[in-house]
Amino acid sequence: MKQLSLCMIATGSDAQLKRCLDSTQGLVDEIIIVNMKPTDRISKLGQSYGAKVFDFYEEGGYPEAGNFALEQVTGEWVLWMHEDEQLDQNDRYRVRDLLYQEQCDLIFLNVLQYGFTANGRTRILDMAVPRLFRSHFRFQHFTEYQELLNYNQLKGTSKEPERVGIFPVKIHDYRLEKNPLQNKSNVLRELDYLNRQPLTAGGNGQWYAYHLACEYYRLQMYRPGFKHLNTAIQHYLDEKQLPPYIIYKLKYSVVLDEVISDEIDHGLKLALRMYPDYVDLQFYSGIVHYKKRMYEEALHHFSRCLELGETPPGKYLVRKGTGSYQAAYYKGLCLEKLGEDDDSIRAFIESLSYLSTFKPSLEALIRRLGEDAVLHELTYFWDHELPMEREELQSLLDTYLHDTGGMKSLGRVT
């Protein structure tokens, strides 16, 4: 059986570390914790999970501590995590299956980083990040907020397929939600340093470019991020190869931060020619057309999202809801704009059938029905087959209106 080692650096937060270890319990064969702020509390907590805990007193910072952790590994594969991350409970057991991907030395997983925009809105940055790799890898650069693997350690030649895999196993990253990145200038200096390093010496510069783009996107600085992603794309085009879809996923995720331009629209069209069945790209294209008030075109893309769906997990990293409740919600908005009232209502109900707690669809449906509407008095609800039971829908709307306070009940279905 393949041996899997969990590696991480601890910096003193035992509550966060406990949640991380809980999410991997029973999954890994070995746990390596390097404690950069040695405390008995962290040591005892790690040891209670069977971890090997090393207090790090040597000179140096994160790069030295990270590589020291990797030097302690006895397993063939490493799962690298941060102490304030959690492995998704629905995906956790799929990690061991990935250990038998003999064609891979390095595997990108789906990291969801939670934070805030400048105006305080919750922001989820959805990235593919190298977190599962064979134990011969080492870090080339590492800071408190980022680590950079030495991609030059990838085996193989330019004439052989890349020994890199990409799989939709999710890790939830809460670092920036709990500790927002305050000193942007320091991070920019780090990025400037990386930009000036000869990082492409081993012929894997496309992955360095992707890494730098991730860091710029983290800072919501999209223009330099675009530049690096275009560099990565050009590498594959020069080699007459299809660029990995994760590059396009990251590149066009800016539409969720309401960054819309003709350049993005054009690029999405080209990306969809290469990946027509990638639901995230269809969703992004729908958002672009909706923002440009091209509702029929947007409706086409959101309908296509629902056709593609998002389960069972396929070969793509799929953003939750783009093939179900989010797509149905935007489909309803498009139909509403096109004057298709009954169909828009049905789309909002379809969204709730996927996720009954999705607040935007609840509010849109109430807006369409009116707060005083009684379901059994509406002809629509008897002339149309609904995506969910009428009693369930009535209860859902009643509960929502009651919880929001001061609104009248919608009545009962009889």
UniProtKB/TrEMBL annotation:
Record keyword Transferase present: yes
Any Pfam family the entry gives: Glycos_transf_2
GO molecular function: glycosyltransferase activity
Gene3D superfamilies referenced in this protein's UniProt entry, alphabetically: Spore Coat Polysaccharide Biosynthesis Protein SpsA, Chain A, Tetratricopeptide repeat domain
Residue stretches making up the Glycosyltransferase 2-like domain: 5-144
Highest taxon of the lineage: Bacteria
InterPro entries per UniProt: Glyco_trans_2-like (IPR001173), Nucleotide-diphossugar_trans (IPR029044), TPR-like_helical_dom_sf (IPR011990), TPR_rpt (IPR019734)
TPR repeat positions: 279-312
EC number: 2.4.-.-
Protein name: Glycosyltransferase
Source species of the chain: Paenibacillus enshidis
